[in-house]
Amino acid sequence: MAGPGFGGGQQGGAKPARTPLQRVLYWGAVLAVWGLIFLVVFFAVFARGLPDTSTLYNVDRQPSITYLDRNGALIATRGTQMAPPADLDSLPDYVPAAFIAIEDRRFYHHPGFDPIGMMRAAVRNMRAGRVVQGGSTLTQQLAKNLFLTPDQNIRRKVQELMLAVWLEMKFSKKEILALYLNRVYFGAGAYGIEAASQRYFDKSAKNLTVGEAALLAGLLKAPSRYSPVSESERAATRATVVLNEMEEAGVITAAQREEAVTQPVIVSRTLATQHAQYFIDWLDKSIRGLVGEPTEDMVVETTLDLTLQTSAERSVRRILDRDEGKGVQQAALVALDGDGRVRAMIGGASYADSQFNRATDARRQAGSSFKPFVYLAAVEAGYTPQTPVVDQPITIGNWSPKNYSNTFSGNMTLAQAVAQSTNTVAAYVADQIGRDSVARAARRLGIESRIGLEPAMALGAVEVSPLEMATAYDAFSNGGRRVEAYGISRIRTPQGRVIYQRSGAQNGQAINNPSLYYMNEMLRGVMTSGTGRSAAIAGRDLAGKSGTTSDYKDAWFVGYTGGFVTAVWVGKDDNTAMRGVTGGSSPAAIWKGFMEAALPRLNAPRIPNGPPMPEGWTPPDPVGDLLSGMGEGGVPVEPVDPNIGEPYVEQSGQPIPQQPAPRQPVVRPTSPQPGRDAPDQQPEGRQPAEKKSDPLFF
């Protein structure tokens, strides 16, 4: 008997095969399920760590510091600057349209991301071999600005896309555009269209012109790169690109575009005064020392006078342009009033090119502008403007200073030696009274840099800053009082609560009479009959001193009137020589140009006499008489050409001794001062550097 299954019929029929349509539907469903699972997992992974969107309206920013000049004019704002949000309806139609035209032409037609724009950007970037175009929409940029870091990675990009879709679902296009314009960063510390309009153009955003709107829209690509302040040409080119896009999109007509291109955009005077930023940088360093770490917005009332600052900038710029062919590349200027308040400060040729402040941080050899400290110590030791001295060859130790002409004028008065900046006399006088006395005099007036005691110190082989020199000379201008230079008068909150108030404490008397009288008379002579004649201003009581190093690397002019002093330096950052530039040329021209503009505004008095004279003191012959005619012993005194200014002196080629030389020069004067040997001389300016181990310095 046959077993079951043998020779019998089929137990159950074969499963029927799927039709092609069924197979497509089946595998489509499988892929859809797995795709859904993948998307759920994908978004779950990338959604982890998404920021809390409830912080949408919170503003996390550093406190801002607003700087005002002495008259309340705005100088600068550091930190984050915010303004009340601009109402989109109050803005001209072309303002938001400018941002849409250049940032996201399809803004009104995408759900938060633009696949077409992303594909177009990917193709362009592949062809260029680098990133030349972004595919982010305006909504994605808003999401990044509100919630995310600027990190460039896949996770952040996916989160940006997710948040952009969320924003599109939660807000209308108009609300998104308003959020964007009020929160985006425009550079210069300005966040939002209103703050940017106030910052760059001193006007409300509702008053922006077509050209101004295009410039602001062009900033967003790179606020520092397209800044209208530091990169005006690049900013103008970028604004033209925006105008082209606006015309192509139909936002403006060809006539409007042409008008915007031809009409200049005027940037705020405050921002245009970029050299004042050197002054602000200087203040920034001290604010935390005065009030601690800022935790709220502050207003800093400064001593700067923006009108004088502008005059200083113009004078510096004019001479730098004029003397560029002579190798004059950099300049610094500091102007102080009689109490040490900084009224103007220039730290370099261009703040945009270099933020290094040469007015406060550079240390350059002073040349003969250091000699007033030599002569101050001398008159305090008993010299007077009438004291006879001799310009003749001398040797101090193994060093023999020389004069510009390689000749010697013989007998003269101390006043004549000061006016003509005679090197041999200055070197001899310092050697006789003691270079330590000179250093103490300079210290007393405000020189804080190292002062070496080598013989060349008498001729300005001392590295100082323009701020130090202005501070030290201020005592000559204000009646002999030492000052401390400062730039902050008061710090308060925007609501008026005072955080810091500078006290009116006075520093002590640094120069007494008759020493102050003698110094002012001799330094007046520099302006009337000496190396500073090119800086003289008719009808003004002025005094000062030029300075030039012997290799033409540094040139100075420091001068003053009653209660106001200005120090000017010119040179090169790489410390190479200029071509024949002396203290009586480029620096004196800057000084004179600035002072001619400043003096009418200052209404400065004559240089004050200072404290009372000692009982029984009688004034000497007028210094003007001492500066004219023949020198002592019938030796003619040659006038100094004011157009040449400070004499150039070649180095003697002999090394500087490492210890102070004995106070008896090899060559003695023919007419010694009672109780003293007569003067010797030394080259002006730079000498070989002494060893770092030399302990002889102040």
Give average pLDDT, whole number. Answer: 81
Structure summary, number of beta strands: 14
* Strand order, sheet with most strands: 2-1-3-10-11
Radius of gyration: 37 Å
Tell me the span between the first and last alpha carbons: 131 Å
Strand content: 5-15%
How would you sum up the global shape? Answer: elongated
Unreliable segments (pLDDT under 50, ≥5 consecutive)?
1-10, 629-698
Please state the structural category: alpha+beta
Helix content range: 25-40%
Q: What's the total helix number?
A: 21
- Largest beta sheet, briefly? 5 strands, mixed
Give a short overview.
This protein has 698 residues and is of the alpha+beta class. 37% of the residues lie in helices and 10% in strands. The chain has a 5-stranded mixed beta sheet, with helices on one face. A 5-stranded antiparallel beta sheet has the order 5-4-14-13-12, sandwiched between helices. Strands 6-9 form a two-stranded antiparallel sheet.
Report on this model:
The chain is α+β, with helices and mostly antiparallel strands. Helix content is 37%, strand content 10%. The chain is elongated and about 135 Å long. The termini are far apart. Residues 1-10 and 629-698 have low confidence and may be disordered.
